[in-house]
Write a structure and sequence with these properties.
The complex is a heterodimer of chains A (about 190) and B (about 500). Chain A is an alpha+beta fold. Chain A folds into two domains: about 30 residues; about 140 residues, no CATH class. Chain A is built from four helices and six strands, in the order αββαββααββ. In chain A, the strands form two sheets. In chain A, strands 3-4-5-6 form a four-stranded mixed β-sheet. In chain A, strands 1-2 form a two-stranded antiparallel ribbon. In chain A, a hairpin with a 4-residue loop joins strand 3 and strand 4. In chain A, helix 2 runs antiparallel to helix 4. Chain B has about 500 residues and is α+β, with helices and mostly antiparallel strands. In chain B, strands 24-23-25-30-26-29 form a six-stranded mixed β-sheet, with helices on both faces. In chain B, strands 5-6-7-8-9 form a five-stranded antiparallel β-sheet, with helices on one face. In chain B, strands 16-17-20-19-18 form a five-stranded antiparallel β-sheet, with no helix packed on it. In chain B, helix 1 packs across helix 2. Chain B is elongated. The N and C termini of chain B lie far apart (about 65 Å). The chains are: A alpha+beta (about 190), B alpha+beta (about 500). Chains A and B meet through helix 4 of A and strand 25, helix 7, strand 29, helix 9 and strand 30 of B.
Chain lengths: ~190, ~500
């Protein structure tokens, strides 16, 4: 082996060793704390990265009480549309502090959520959404469209939303808004 | 013949035998009272004896009528029917019915050689073991045998200015038809018989609009019209457990002395019920003959509750009643209330009342609430349908050829109940705009006073329809205002004028 050939072999070996180190040691260390690494979520089948957030449009009652206002908030990342939809709804129905006012009655919880192949999301909420409601038509519209818009405005795969209460279809929440069919998003009720 | 028919047949035969043998029973205590047994084959009288202010019937009469075997032994009377027994003892106000003790208002009485039992024996002791329904109506001395429809009628006749109103309640509910035949109105009830005194309304002093109201067997009521009668208008709607028939009579004096055009805009605000104002009944060309007014919520459903204690269900009912009085009194238009008292009515039942009575306009009254206490003002909603529903409605509006009885085909439009409003959306929007115009200077309006939304109550209305939120009970100032006479009068006046404007709008649209 000539000295030149020996030097080439040594350099090649060093590069291979570095790549091997990078692949088996460096990268795993690098990903050891993946809190804000968006690339980690690139593969759809990868497990949810804890602490990862997305920005979602959420909706609250406007000052005049007649319409909704949009507020952009960080929401935990959810793997897949259904999981992401659950995260958005959980963020939407969570208690808020003034000056924000939520159209969702306090104590309402998400029981289940599923999405059909047609793009209709079925959001099953606890009974507090009915029992804690003020009972007005305007408030009922704001409650319904808070949930509907929270999904349709953030998830292109969702085209309609139907609310269920305690696992059952309901005609209305407070006697006014027809909930027997999925409703499309309605941004005209948003300032 | 099935067992039920056989039983009814047997009961009928027994009643026949009872009628034949009744003539032979000459020892019944004399009494002017009779209990009328009403069965499929007709009416049969049974004597009533009064002892110590208590009404009794003879046990042997009951035995003949209902195939009972009566045996007296060891100081007790045993009544047997198809293996079931009733035992009564002469000194006790009790009966043992198939081993179960029931109380009676008095002990059996011995009269001559006959035993008498209290009339209540029939409902308390005999009915539980008898295999055909026995319905004792003690107040009217009626015993209904079998499943006959026998509504109890109560009537009220009242003079309203020069005009008059007859209200007849039928319990349980029975529908009716009203026809004029010369100088008489005939009201036919869908029933087997009527439970009512023969004279429902006593003869009125002449010259009257109505002279008398009488019951004609089996299920007809006749109204004898007087010389002052000019026209009538009838409406039927449920009220509590009753079906209420209201007939408004117009006097000849009213029609000749009422030159003013009714319902002129700008007329003074009407009283809650405006009976003195001349109704304009003679408007066959009017595009609006019937208006349905829906007072939201009711019964256990209070609707919105204000912090001061006002309840939506009470406020909207009060306004609905005033509106009915104003529209009927001023315009002579029939007004149906989906509820006239504090009771729960299903959403579909409300629109069914309007649809089945072919109402030309539907107005649902509500008060609103918001999580923001400052929210205030009235909003007028018309229906808005989800996208899928719109497509479905459009598809269903295409006429479908269906076979007819006489042969051949006829194009019929089949409209799904939930989408009935779809074809009226334009007119509903037009009416909403008129209401907004009329309310504008009279009561506070919301920043966006006209809205469209998928509201359940409007979707099934097969006529122009709006839902009016009169104001916000969650706003303390509005709560006070909504409960006040000034607000309610202004609101009623505005809706009244809206109906007039809409009638003109429809008339213009038709004549184009």
């Amino acid at each position: 082996m000539t000295p030149r050939r020996a030097a080439t072999t040594a350099a090649f070996t060093a590069v291979v060793a570095f790549l091997a180190w990078l692949l088996f040691v460096g990268l795993p260390r690098w990903y050891g704390a993946p809190a804000t690494r968006p690339a980690a979520a690139a593969a759809p089948s990868a497990p949810a990265a804890p602490g990862r957030k997305i920005t979602a449009h959420l909706f609250y009652v406007a000052d005049d009480g007649m319409r909704l206002v949009r507020a952009d908030r960080d929401v935990p990342f959810g793997e897949g549309t259904v999981q992401q939809a659950k995260e958005i709804i959980n963020a939407q129905i969570a208690p808020v502090t003034p000056p924000l006012v939520s159209a969702i009655p306090a104590g309402t919880t998400l029981r289940a959520l599923f999405i059909t192949a047609k793009g209709d999301a079925y959001v099953d909420l606890s009974r507090e959404i009915m029992t804690g409601h003020t009972g007005g038509t305007v408030d009922e519209l704001l409650t319904v469209y808070t949930i509907v818009n929270a999904l349709t405005a953030n998830l292109p795969a969702v085209s309609g939303v139907q609310l269920l209460v305690d696992g059952k279809e309901v005609e209305t929440l407070a006697g006014h808004v027809d909930l027997r069919r999925p409703l499309a998003g309605n941004l005209s009720r948003v300032q | 013949m099935n067992a039920r028919s056989l039983t009814l047949f047997s009961a009928t035969i027994a009643l026949g035998v009872f009628v034949l043998t009744r003539g032979l029973a000459s020892q019944a205590p004399p009494s002017p009272l009779t209990l009328t047994l009403l069965a499929r084959d007709g009416r049969h009288p049974m004597a009533i004896a009064v002892v110590n202010d208590q009404e009794f019937v003879a046990l042997e009469d009951l035995a003949a009528a209902f195939q009972l075997a009566v045996r007296e032994e060891a100081g007790a009377i045993t009544i047997t029917y198809k293996g079931k027994t009733i035992v009564v003892t002469p000194d006790q106000a009790l009966a043992s019915v198939s081993g179960r003790l029931v109380s009676l208002p008095a002990a059996p009485v011995h009269a001559g050689r006959r035993w008498l039992v209290p009339v209540e024996f029939i409902s308390r002791a005999l009915a539980p073991i008898y295999d055909t329904r026995l319905d004792l109506r003690k107040a009217s001395h009626l015993l209904i045998v079998g499943d006959l429809r026998v509504p109890r009628l109560t009537a009220r006749y009242e003079a309203i200015g020069n005009n008059a109103r007859l209200t007849i309640d039928a319990v349980p509910r029975a529908t009716n038809t009203v026809q004029q035949d010369g100088e008489r109105l005939t009201i036919k009830f869908d029933a087997d018989a009527l439970d009512a005194s023969s004279t429902l309304v006593p003869p009125q002093a002449a010259p009257a609009i109505v002279q008398a109201v009488r019951v004609v067997e089996p299920s007809t009521v006749t109204v004898d019209l007087g010389p002052r009668f000019a026209a009538f208008r009838a409406s039927t709607q449920p009220a509590d457990t009753a079906m209420r028939l209201v007939i408004d009579f117009v006097s000849t004096q009213t029609t000749t002395e009422a030159p003013a055009a009714p319902g002129t805009p700008g007329a003074p605000a009407p009283a809650p019920a405006a009976p003195e104002l001349p109704p304009a009944f003679a408007q066959p060309t009017s595009a609006i003959r019937t208006v349905a007014i829906d007072a939201g919520h009711g019964g256990a459903d209070d609707g919105v509750k204000g912090s001061g204690g006002a309840k939506e269900k009470d406020l909207v009912l009060a306004v609905a009643r005033q509106l009915k009085g104003a529209i009927e009194g001023r315009l002579g238009i029939r007004v149906l209330l989906t509820r006239d008292d504090d009771r729960a009515v299903g959403l579909d039942d409300r629109t069914a009342l309007a649809n089945n009575n072919k109402a030309d306009l539907f107005i649902s009254l509500h008060t609103d609430a918001s999580t923001r206490p400052s929210a205030a003002g009235a909003i007028i909603f018309s229906a808005g349908f989800p996208r899928d529903a719109e497509q479905q409605a459009k598809a269903s509006l295409a006429p479908e050829p269906l076979p007819t009885f006489g042969g051949g085909l006829r194009d019929i439009e089949l409209v799904p109940w939930d989408l009935a409003q779809f074809r009226h959306l334009d007119q509903s929007s037009a009416f909403a705009a008129i209401v907004e115009q009329q309310l504008r200077d009279k009561i506070p309006l919301a920043p966006r006073p006209i809205d469209q939304a998928p509201l359940r109550i409007l979707e099934s209305a097969n006529m122009p329809a709006v839902l009016v939120e009169m104001g916000f009970l969650s706003n303390a100032d509005q709560e006070k205002a909504l409960a006040g006479a000034a607000f309610q009068n202004a609101f009623v006046q505005a809706i009244l004028e809206s109906v007039i404007k809409f009638r003109d709008h429809l008339g213009t649209a038709t004549s184009r």
